[in-house]
Amino acid sequence: MTLVRAVVWVFLLVNLTIIHLLFVTAGPPASGPLGQAGRLLGLYLAFALVVQVLLVARVPLLDRAFGMDRLTGWHRWTGLTVFWLALLHPAFVIAGFARHDRVPAPATLLTLAAQIPVLLGMIAVTLVVVVVALSVRAARRRLSYETWHAVHLLLYIVLTLGIVHQVYEGTAFTVNLVTMAYWWGLWAFAIGALLTGRLILPLIRNRRHRLRVAAVVPESGDVVSVHVTGRDLDRLRARAGQFFLWRFPGHNRWWQVNPFSLSAAPNGRSLRLTAKAIGPTSAGLRDLPVGARVFAEGPYGAFTLARRTRPATLMIAGGIGVTPVRALLEDPDLGDDVIIIYRVRSGADAVLLGEMRNLARGRGARLHLITGRTGGANQPFHPDNLRRLIPDIEDRDVYVCGPAALTRAVLATLRTLKVPSRQVHAELFRLAGGS
C-alpha cells in the first residue's frame, strides 16, 4: 500500500505541474493581471473537481491504502477548496473585465451572464454554495442523513455544468492537440473511475450475489440486526470491521443509501448489519420483510486487522460503534491478547453485549463495560485513567469506533500517551455523520 500512496502523491504533483505549464502556455488574457489570476484559479478549480470525482468514485485501491474514513475527510476538505475556488475564480475574472473595460463590476457580471457557458458556470457556483451551506456542522445537525445525501446529489449537476463551462471557456485547455488530449484524458479517467466504482461494479456484484433479507432481529427498542444472504458471498472478499452502503428497494427511495458496518465477521454465507434508529431508513429496518431485495455497495473501510502491527490489541467502542468491533472479535487472526472497552450511557444501551461477552470469553479477552455520563470522576479516557486501565497501551494496536466526540477524545489521549500513529486505527464514519 506504500506504493499506492506514493503513486497518489506523484499524480497530484505531476498534474499540478502540468496545470502551471498550461497556464503559462496559454499566454496572458485580455482582461489583464486580475483576469490572469482568475484563469489560474479556474485551472485549480477544474483540477480540484477532478480530485473530488476520484474521491467519491470509491476506488478500491485507494480505500485499501487510506481507508474510507480518511478519504471522506479529504473529500470534505476538497469540497471546501472547490467552494472557495468557485467563488474566487469568477470574482477575479469579473474584476479583470470590469477594470479592462472600465465598467462597474455589476454591469460586467450581467454582460457575462448573458453568455450561456458563463451562465452555466454561475449556476454551478450557486449550487456549490448551497451544498456547502447545508454541510456545515450547524446545518448538518438539523438534517437527516438521507436529506444530506440527497442534497449532495446536486454535485453531479455541478460537475456536468462545470464540464460544459470548460468546453466553451477553458482556453488554456485548447492551446493545441496535446493540451486538449491531456485535459480531456484526465476527465475521462476521473469519470471512468466514477462510473466504474459507483455504477458498473455495484450492478455487476449485486446481479451476481442477489442479496435478500434472511431475518430481522430486534436487539433493543431502537436497534435492529438485519441478516442478509445471497449467492457466492465469499467472492465479495469482505472482512470483519468493514462496512457496506446499503439500499433497500421498496423500503426507501433509490437515491437513499446508508453506511452500516458488518456486525458479524463475514462467513461466505451471510452478512449481518446492526443499526440504531437515527434516520428514516435505519428506523424502518425492523419492518423489512424477509425475502426483500437488498442492494449493497462495498465492502469499504480499512478498519481491519490487515493494518495491525502488534500482536496485542486494544479495542474501544462507543454506543452503536460496537458493531465493527464485535465483528473483529470473530476474526481468527485477532489473537488472544485482546482488551475491549465498551463505553455506553447505561447498561440498557449496550447492544450486543451478550455476544461480546461470549466472544471475549471464548478467546480469553478482557471486556470492560463502562457506563454513566462523562464528567467529574467518570472520565475513562483521560490519559491517566486509560494508562491505569491499560498499562501497556503503547505496545498495542488500538482500534477505536464510536461517536465523533468519543473518538476524538480517545485519539487525543493516545497522542498524549505517545502511542505510535501507525498503531492507531479509527473509524469516525464521517460518511454517515455518525457511527
TrEMBL record:
Residues 206-306 form the FAD-binding FR-type domain. Its cofactor is FAD. The chain crosses the membrane at residues 7-26, 38-57, 77-98, 118-136, 148-168, 180-201. One of its GO terms (cellular component) is membrane. The keyword Transferase does not apply. Its main location: membrane. It is a multi-pass membrane protein. Coiled coil: none annotated. Keywords: 2Fe-2S, FAD, Flavoprotein, Iron, Iron-sulfur, Membrane, Metal-binding, Oxidoreductase, Transmembrane, Transmembrane helix. It is found in: Membrane. GO terms for molecular function: 2 iron, 2 sulfur cluster binding; flavin adenine dinucleotide binding; metal ion binding; oxidoreductase activity. InterPro entries: FAD-bd_8, FAD-bd_FR_type, Fe3_Rdtase_TM_dom, FNR_nucleotide-bd, MRET, OxRdtase_FAD/NAD-bd, Riboflavin_synthase-like_b-brl. This is Oxidoreductase. It comes from Actinoplanes utahensis.
